[in-house]
């Protein structure tokens, strides 16, 4: 049951954010939120749609996508644009970067505080005000390398 997976703290946070933003906490939104808490990572709207199909058989992929975009606006998850315009959503809100496997497309989190704190080259500083930095490293992950 969803109550087991969803902590009270998470639910309170969701309720409060929806309230402040003037958004109704619908059953669909709640189910999608529960799914994100139960399976953290880098899901796409398609993945979430597949997983919640049993609970919400009539939900459209567009609704899932829009709900995820709303959660992004509320700051509950982060929208990511990765290779080939694939849009994924990140449940990890800590500052981190990504290693993306070009074969299996798996996205792994990287923590690199030196990079986060380093002074950026002047050329970048001169382009405008930097608000955040996100590094995307592309390569072939170990499990794919093992298969070859
Ligand atoms: Zn791989
Ligand atoms: Zn991530």
Q: Enter the CATH topology name of the largest domain.
A: Arc Repressor Mutant, subunit A
Helix content, binned percent: 40-55%
> Radius of gyration over alpha carbons?
18 Å
Number of continuous helical runs: 8
Low-confidence stretches: none
Beta-strand content: 15-25%
What is the distance, rounded to the nearest whole angstrom, between the alpha carbons of the first and last residues?
41 Å
- Report the CATH architecture of the largest domain: Orthogonal Bundle
CATH class of the largest domain: Mainly Alpha
How much is the average pLDDT?
90
Counting helices, strands and paired strands, the structural category is alpha+beta
- SSE order, one letter for each helix or strand: HHHHHEEEEHHEH
Sheet with the most strands, sense and barrel status = 3 strands, mixed
* Number of E strands: 5
| CATH homolog superfamily of the largest domain | Winged helix-like DNA-binding domain superfamily/Winged helix DNA-binding domain
Strand order of the largest sheet: 4-3-5
Tell me the count of domains: 2
Pfam families: FUR
Cofactor: Zn(2+)
GO biological process, one term: negative regulation of DNA-templated transcription
GO molecular function: DNA-binding transcription factor activity; transcription cis-regulatory region binding; zinc ion binding
């Amino acid at each position: 049951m969803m109550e087991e997976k969803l902590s009270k703290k998470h639910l309170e946070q969701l309720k409060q954010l929806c309230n402040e933003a003037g958004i109704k906490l619908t059953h669909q939104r709640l189910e999608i939120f529960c799914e994100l808490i139960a399976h953290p990572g880098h899901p796409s709207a398609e993945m979430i749609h597949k997983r919640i199909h049993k609970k919400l058989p009539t939900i459209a992929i567009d609704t899932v996508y829009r709900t995820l975009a709303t959660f992004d606006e509320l700051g509950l998850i982060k929208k990511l644009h990765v290779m080939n315009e694939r849009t994924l959503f990140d449940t990890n809100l800590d500052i981190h970067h990504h290693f993306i496997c070009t074969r299996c497309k798996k996205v792994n989190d990287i923590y690199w505080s030196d990079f986060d704190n380093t002074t950026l080259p002047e050329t970048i500083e001169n382009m405008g005000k930097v608000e955040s930095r996100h590094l995307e490293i592309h390569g072939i992950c170990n499990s794919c390398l093992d298969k070859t």
